[in-house]
Amino acid sequence: MSAPALTSVAIAGAGLIGTSIGLALRRSGVRVHLSDASPEVARRAAELGAGTLEPPAGPVDLFVAAAPPYAVADVLSDAIAARVARTYTDVAGVKAAPLREVAARHPGTTALVGGHPMAGRERSGPGAAQADLFEGRPWVVTPLPGSGAEDVGRVEELAGRCGATAVRMGPEAHDRAVALVSHAPHLLAALVACRLAGGEEAAVAVAGTGVRDITRVAGSDPAPWVSLLGANARPVAEVLQALRADLDVALESLDALAADPGDQRAAERMRTLLAAGVTGRERLPGRHGGRPETLAVVPVVVPDRPGELARLLAFIGEAGVNVEDLGLEHSLGQPAGLALVSVRPEAAERLGEVLAAGGWSVHA
Amino acid sequence: MSAPALTSVAIAGAGLIGTSIGLALRRSGVRVHLSDASPEVARRAAELGAGTLEPPAGPVDLFVAAAPPYAVADVLSDAIAARVARTYTDVAGVKAAPLREVAARHPGTTALVGGHPMAGRERSGPGAAQADLFEGRPWVVTPLPGSGAEDVGRVEELAGRCGATAVRMGPEAHDRAVALVSHAPHLLAALVACRLAGGEEAAVAVAGTGVRDITRVAGSDPAPWVSLLGANARPVAEVLQALRADLDVALESLDALAADPGDQRAAERMRTLLAAGVTGRERLPGRHGGRPETLAVVPVVVPDRPGELARLLAFIGEAGVNVEDLGLEHSLGQPAGLALVSVRPEAAERLGEVLAAGGWSVHA
C-alpha cells in the first residue's frame, strides 16, 4: 500500500538538517512551512528558499521535528497535541527513548514514525544547508508497533524525495546499530587520540597514515557527541563492555608475551583477536552500500605540485578506467606523494601497464 | 663528523625490505652483496637487480640484517663474529630487546647501530620490492651508548641513499614510539572491527565513512602483527593500560548517563575525554611531516563514471590550486560520490567560487 504523495510539510527547526530537508522538498515542488525557536534562524532559512514562514492554514501531510535528541520529544508531543499534521516524524540520531516518551504522552496514536537521515556536515546552521545533503545516504525509518502503513509510507517518501535510501528498522535496533557502527567507534578513536595528547614529541612525529585514519573522527567538536553518547548511553556501553573484555584478553596475552616471547598460547589468543577483526572489517559495506567488493590498489608516485594529481587522473580517465577510491599517502620532508588508486581487480593489471608506459612510477 | 661514503653493503634477507634497499643502493652506485636463507628468494632478488649473490672478497662498509624481529639478533651476532663489515645495522620494527641481546654477545662493540625504515606494503617478498619504497618516509636510527660516530653516520647515509629521512632515537624510545603511534592503535582498530564481526546485518549495513577509516588497518594479515605485538609487548601493554583507564571513565560516565541523562558531572567527564582526543589528534604530523596545518575541505559532487574525478582535478589544477589531500565519500545506492578536496585555507574560498562558476556542485 503506497501513501498519498506528499504535498505539504511543516518543519520545526531550521538548522542544517531542517533547512536541507526544506531545500530538497522545495526542489521537488512540495509546499514547506518552516519554523524555528530563533526568528532570525527561521528567516535565514526562508531566504535561502527552504520554505515559507507562513503557518499552514490547516493540517499538513507531514510534520518533521528537526530538533536535537534532548528536545525532540517535546516538539513532537506539542505538534501532535495541536493536530498540525496527518503524520509526525523526526530526524534525531537516537530513536528509542524520545519516541517512547511521545507514545506514552499520546497513547493509541498511529501517526508517529521516527526517522534518522544518516548525513551531516562539520558546519551547522541554515547557512550550511544544501538540497543534496542526503543524496545516496541511508535514512533509517523507525515505525512504532502501532504506526499506520500510510504514515510509514509518508516518511519513506520524505527520504526518497531527499535523495536518500529509506532503511526500515525498529527504534531499539536503530540505537544498537548506531552504537555499533558510529558512537562506540567514535569514542574509541577519541581514546586512541587521548594517548597521543600525552605522547613524547619524537614519538608523535613518526606517526604514519594508520593512526591518522584511526583518529580522524576524533578531531570533531565534542559537544554534539557528548549529547549523542548520553542519549544512547546504554547501547554504547554494551558495545564498549564487550570491547573491554577483548581488550583484557589482549592485555593478558601481552603480559604473557612480555614474560616469555615464545608463549605460543598467548600468541594464538592475539592472532584470534586480530583475525576476528579482519572478519568484522570485511563486513563493512563497500562504496555503493552493497556487499563489500575487493578493490585492487595501484600506488603511483605523484610530484607534489599543482595539477599533477589531476594529470594522473586524467590519464586514468582516458584509459577508460573508473577510480573507485583514492587515497593520498603523506610524506615526511619529501616533494612527492603516493596516490593509492583503487580500481576493480580486473582493471588493475592493464592500468599498471598503461601508467608505466605513460611514464608514471607505479609501485606494482 | 661525517662518515666515509658507502661503497659496499651486504644485505642478509632478500624479502620486501632487503630487496628494496638493494634496489635503492644499486641505483646510487653502491656495490650490494645479497644473501637469503632461501636460495630461490636470493636468486629472484638478484635477477631484479638488487645486487650480486657473490660473497664479498673482504669486509664491506655496512652489513644490513633484513630479518624479522625474532631472527635479527642471531643474524647480527653471526655477522659480527665473522667480521664481515665495518658497521652493522638491521631494519626490524622492534629495537631494544634484539639490540640488547647482540650487545651482550659482543661486549664493547662500537660497530652496531639499529635502524627501522618506517615503510612497508601489503604484499611481501622480493617481487613486491621497489627502489623508492622508502622515499619520504622516516628511517629511525637507534645508536647504542657505545656506537661509533662513523657507524651512526654510515646508517644515516644508508637511510639517505634510500630517499628516507633519518630520525635519531634511542632503542627504548623507538619502541615506546611505535607502541604509541602504530602497535597500540592497530590493536584498538582490530578490537573495534571485532565488534562488527558479531553485529546485526542491518546495523553493519548502515555503517559510514567514520568506522571505515577507524578499522582500515584491521584488514591486514594478522601474522606479522602478532609477531610485532609480541616483540614489543611491554610498551604496547603500557599504552593499552592507560587507554583502559580512560575507557573505564567513559563506561562509568555512560552508566551514570543511562541512569540519569541529566547527570552534568558525567557529561562533563565525557566531554573532557573527547576534548583530550581533539588535542591528541591535532599533534599528528601533517602531509609534509612538519607541524600539522589546518586544511580547508571543499566537498564537491562527482558523478561516478570514468574521468569525472580527473576532470575535477584538472579543473582545480588549471585554477593553480594545489590539492593537499583528497578523500572520496561513499554513497549508498547512488550514482554520485563526494570528493573532499583539502586545500590550504587561503585558497578555499576562491576554489569554491571557481568550481561553482565551472558548473561543479560544491557543498560550500
Protein traits:
homodimer, 364 residues, alpha/beta, 6-phosphogluconate dehydrogenase C-terminal fold
How many domains, in number, for the residues of chain A? 3
Number of strands of chain A: 10
CATH homology superfamily name of the largest domain in chain A: NAD(P)-binding Rossmann-like Domain
Structural class of chain A: alpha/beta
Low-confidence stretches of chain A: 287-292
Strand content of chain A: 15-25%
Outline of chain A: globular
User: What is the CATH topology assignment of the largest domain in chain A?
Assistant: Rossmann fold
Radius of gyration of chain A: 25 Å
SSE pattern of chain A: EHEHEHEHEEHEHHHHHHEHEEH
What is the count of DSSP helices of chain A, taking H or I runs of 4+ residues? 13
CATH class of the largest domain in chain A: Alpha Beta
Task: Provide structural commentary.
- 2 copies of one chain form a homodimer.
- By secondary structure, chain A is α/β, with parallel strands linked by helices.
- Chain A has 3 domains: 8-169, Rossmann fold; 175-282, 6-phosphogluconate dehydrogenase C-terminal fold; 296-357, Alpha-Beta Plaits, CATH 3.30.70.
- Helix content of chain A is 48%, strand content 16%.
- Chain A has helices spanning 16-27, 39-47, 69-81, 96-105, 149-161, 171-197, 201-205, 209-215, 222-231, 233-259, 264-282, 308-318, 345-357, and strands at residues 8-12, 31-35, 60-65, 85-90, 113-117, 138-143, 165-168, 296-303, 325-329, 336-343.
- In chain A, the strands form 3 sheets. A 4-stranded parallel β-sheet of chain A has the order 2-1-3-4, with helices on both faces. In chain A, strands 5-6-7 form a 3-stranded mixed β-sheet, with helices on one face.
- In chain A, α3 (69-81) runs parallel beside α4 (96-105) and α6 packs across α10.
- Chain A is globular.
- Chain A starts with 7 loop residues before the first strand and ends in a 7-residue tail after the last helix.
- The model of chain A is unreliable at 287-292 (pLDDT under 50).
- The interface between A and B is large, with 143 and 144 residues.
